[in-house]
Specification:
The complex is a heterodimer of chains A (193) and B (538).
Chain A lengths: L1 E9 L4 H14 L3 E5 L10 E9 L13 E6 L2 H6 L4 E10 L12 H9 L3 E5 L1 H8 L5 H8 L1 H4 L3 H11 L5 H21 L1
Chain B lengths: L2 E5 H11 L2 E6 L6 H9 L1 H4 L4 E4 L3 H13 L3 E7 H6 L1 H10 L5 E7 L13 H7 L3 E2 L4 H18 L3 E6 H4 L1 E6 L22 H23 L5 E3 L7 E5 L2 H8 L8 E4 L1 E2 L3 H10 L2 E5 L5 H7 L8 E3 L14 H7 L26 H13 L7 E3 L24 H12 L4 E6 H7 L1 H10 L4 E6 L17 H8 L6 E4 L6 H13 L4 E6 L3 H5 L13
Parallel strand pairs in B: 2-3, 2-4, 4-5, 5-7, 6-7, 10-11, 10-13, 13-14, 15-16, 16-17, 17-19, 18-19
Antiparallel strand pairs in B: 1-8, 6-12, 9-11
Classes of the chains: A alpha/beta (193), B alpha/beta (538).
């Protein structure tokens, strides 16, 4: 078992929390793991990405090689397209449908969604709506993680344990909201399948 | 033994804690910040057993660490690559004096300039200082380095430079922790003249440092971080420095067929290089940063055999960090294609946060300068406010290095350029702006200095600014006239008032300081700061 995943989004969307949950879950299963993230200047409202890799065989590179990613998991639709050269031709793309329009030349959303729909394996998730249902817009990142479970190769209970562990220091209500969001995402993935 | 998921920066910090660290000092700078932050958050630092705090700048960090190692303890200073420029004086001279307790200088280079203004390679500094350098290949090595490097430092009484690059600094992997070593006892050196670098002493010490080079080379030849892995295909050999080794293993499935010399400690292990040269007629050098090893091996004029390939030969891109792709390509593997790039993904540059006080200050600057833009210039500095260079503000004209705003404004004013305005953050001012202000006061220079005081080191994640709450007193102490030391609150509702104040001070024909004070929107969101976040905290 091996997964090479690109996480994409915009600064402040909670991308590193998803990376932490995946990392915790993979570590709990005794898998080899590499996860790299972006700090510093780029975080200020700009492009944020993380490469996460886990495998039952040893891993060496912190970065995913172009053309080999199994999955692009994106918190923002335009950002999901930025990393297509990393995705292997039959790889999957799971993205939030809600754009973050903090630039003047944000392209037409229909064009973006159209390009995504032309990919062989894609899921466009209304994560913002489901996050509201879960109790907080902040849980959209975990809705998306849930929606990506068919491509993650990790059991749902491992991921739930990861959520509990990563948010352990927070208000218990935040943990519950995040778990609800995650499960709504999992549910949506089942219906889409 | 326990396992922890740690960034390269954090692994290095945990390795130092477990190796008997007594003090960790530094100035925040991407990608090095998490080293000192990790120590600060550790139970050892919180209990006061390890002293750790953000210093005013990298120079004071290295000097403080040197002082602690003088007292017999193990100490380290951590910074980004350009921070070593600031700390170059104590770094180079600590190699002449030598150390007492162990001393590590941890420097994180930023190839590809993810969050920096250049790609300088810290390995070149070790050539000037004549000190050894250790460059871990992965997170586990980053954890293992401090125990080894502190022992090395104490065995040879020499500072050791530990070089990280961005990818290792900011990537996580599971780390197996080792045993814990107690801290050193207090023991000041008895050979006192060694630390008094009068020319007569320094000449002796320099001779000793030169003699030590042989010992450092011998250590490199036997280092656990250097290793020649034999291969069956000797048509070419690879020298892979630091994390380049990971990429070689990655693209060869962990089993390269050609011989690979993994380099993690310098000076370069020459015996191993010669063994590789004896086998191979072609050598590919893979290294992050400058073609440092490549140019050494290439020689001048270039040696005819073996043929040396790398960044200089064009086999590896001359600039930017390595990647699995660039390494695979240099090794001659066919390219793996993903999906075609999409033109719909347009650039999304970083920007000031909504509600950021710097945005208001940029608007004030633009309006106050509106009629004077032909001649007037805004000399800016390193920090979030550098983003004021981008639309919709396009407010600043320069950003060179930490502290250059005030002094460049002074030079331009001396040349006759008016108005000459400096824009500098509170932490950058404390780092290296204060001395420039003293120059302006001494010369009664016609400059207007705007200190944007958001009461934190914002760009690197909200560390404590060392001049917090003392900016007015510092400027007064330096000699700014109270009438020309103004404090404004950069808020949209105060825009007209703030523009008027800036215009008044621009028309003053001497040095003025305007402190634009409003807390960073990011630290404000986090609520009141915990005492442990304070500077000088344990």
């Amino acid at each position: 078992m091996k997964r090479d995943i690109i996480l994409a989004g915009v600064g402040g969307q909670g991308l590193l929390s998803i990376a932490a949950v995946l990392g915790d879950a993979a570590l709990g299963l005794g898998l080899h793991l590499r996860q790299c993230e972006v700090h510093g200047m780029a975080q200020r409202g700009g492009v944020v990405q993380s490469h996460i890799r886990y495998s039952d065989a040893p891993l060496y590179s912190d970065l995913v090689r172009e053309g080999t990613a199994d999955l692009i998991l994106s918190l923002e639709p335009m950002e999901s397209l930025r990393y297509l050269p990393f995705l292997r031709p039959d790889g999957a793309l799971v993205t939030n449908s809600l754009p973050v329009k903090n630039i003047p030349d944000y392209p037409d959303l229909d064009r973006i969604l159209g390009e995504i729909r032309r990919l062989p394996r894609h899921r466009i998730v209304d994560a913002a709506i489901m996050a509201e249902q879960a109790g907080s817009p902040q849980s959209a990142n975990l809705v998306l993680l849930g929606a990506a479970t068919p491509f993650l190769g990790l059991a749902e209970d491992s991921l739930e344990a990861g959520i509990r562990s990563v948010f352990a220091g927070k208000d218990p209500r935040i943990v519950e909201t995040n778990l609800r969001g995650f499960r709504l995402g999992v549910e949506a993935a089942r219906h889409a399948a | 033994m326990s396992t922890r998921l740690l960034l390269g920066d954090e692994a290095l910090a945990q390795g130092a804690i477990d190796a008997g660290l007594s003090g960790a000092f530094g100035y925040p700078g991407t990608p090095s910040t998490e080293i000192t932050e990790y120590v600060q958050r550790s139970p050892e630092a919180r209990s006061g057993a390890i002293r750790s705090h953000w210093t005013a700048n990298e120079k004071t960090a290295v000097e403080t660490a040197l002082g602690m190692c003088y007292a017999g303890k193990r100490a380290m200073a951590s910074m980004k690559h350009v921070g070593l420029n600031v700390a170059a004086d104590p770094f180079i001279n600590a190699a002449i004096s030598g150390t007492n307790g162990g001393l590590l200088i941890n420097v994180a280079d930023d190839p590809s300039m993810h969050s920096s203004q250049n790609e300088q390679d810290s390995r070149l500094y070790t050539e000037i200082a004549l000190v050894p350098c250790i460059e871990p290949a992965n997170q586990q090595e980053a954890y293992d380095v401090p125990a080894y490097a502190f022992d090395f430092s104490e065995r040879h009484r020499i500072p050791v430079l530990v070089r990280l690059t961005t990818r290792l600094a900011h990537s996580r992997a599971p780390i197996t922790l080792g045993s814990k070593r107690p801290q050193n006892e207090l023991s000041a050196p008895t050979d006192r003249e060694r630390f008094i670098l009068l020319p007569s002493n320094a000449r002796r010490s320099y001779e000793r440092l030169i003699r030590q080079q042989r010992d450092f080379l011998r250590e490199s030849e036997a280092s656990p971080f250097n290793r020649l892995v034999e291969g069956t295909d000797t048509s070419f050999g690879v020298i892979a420095c630091g994390i380049a080794y990971n990429y070689v293993l990655e693209v060869t499935g962990g089993a390269p067929r050609f011989p690979v010399l993994k380099v993690g400690q310098y000076p370069l292990p020459l015996a191993a290089v010669e063994r590789l040269f004896a086998q191979c007629s072609e050598i590919l050098v893979l290294e992050e940063g400058y073609p440092y090893v490549e140019s050494k091996l290439l020689g001048s004029p270039p040696r005819p055999s073996p043929r040396i390939r790398g960044r200089l030969s064009g086999d590896v891109p001359r600039t930017g960090e390595l990647s699995p792709r660039s390494v695979a390509s240099a090794l001659g593997f066919p390219e793996v294609h993903g999906l075609p790039a999409s033109s719909a993904a347009v650039s999304r540059p970083p920007s000031l946060c909504p509600g950021c006080p710097h945005a208001d200050t940029c608007r004030v600057l633009n309006d106050a300068l509106a009629t004077r833009r032909e001649t007037g210039r805004i000399f800016s500095d390193i920090g979030c406010y550098t983003l004021g260079a981008l639309p919709p503000y396009s407010a600043i004209d320069t950003c060179i290095e930490m502290g250059a705003s005030i002094t460049m404004a002074k030079g331009a004013s001396d040349a006759g350029l008016r108005p000459a305005i400096a824009l500098i953050g509170d932490s950058t001012f404390a780092h290296s702006g204060m001395t420039g202000l003293l120059d302006c006061v001494n010369e009664n220079t016609d400059v207007t200095i705007v200190i944007v005081d958001n009461s934190t080191v914002a760009m690197t994640g909200g560390q404590t600014s060392s001049a917090e709450r003392r900016l007015v007193a510092i400027c007064e102490g330096i000699g700014v006239q109270p009438a020309h030391l103004r404090v404004i609150e950069p808020l949209p509702g105060r825009h007209a008032e703030n523009v008027a104040i800036l215009e008044e001070e621009i028309s003053h024909a001497g040095p003025s300081v305007i402190i634009a004070r409003r807390e960073c929107i990011q630290t404000l969101k986090r609520g009141p700061r915990r005492p442990a976040d304070k500077g000088g905290g344990k």
